[in-house]
# Entry
Amino acid sequence: MKVNDVLAGVPIDAPELPDAANPFRHTELLVGAQVTRILVDVLAGSVGVLFELRQAPHLNANTGLLRVHGVAQQNWICTSAANEFTAWSITGATVHQRPAEFQISAQCLPAGALRIVGTSADFTLLDAAAASTAPPDDQADGRGLLRFGVADENTPCAVVGIARSVQADSARSDESEFGAA
# Structure
């Protein structure tokens, strides 16, 4: 299986992540994760965000994929000076979820912000093949190693587990926040 397969539809047999490992309920788990790709599927109305997780010690996998469905808004804002070939490290995130509504906002270094609004979401932990113990160093490694040292949509992977946002048939409302200014 490749990351793109997971992006197209989460495998039915994926185990649920325990509550303590659910980034929708505990957004502090995302701190240290690095945004490496944002994939927009206009026809499906979904956005996928690929995360490098080797710097996020509380998530037990090397890659993560956030899929937001029924997307009404997706914003990526950064300074042009910070828009050099780099991953974006999450320093804080906010999740708002209610039945048929999901919003995530993430603050990133260097000087970036991500906001996605949709109807639902899932977060899948993945073990990407051939990922070394540490991610590439953007100061010491060349662009080739940076690009190919992290998972992309064509990387083979195994599903570790999945967390799902509040669904339309759920009666609970949930908000979680960490590091928001």
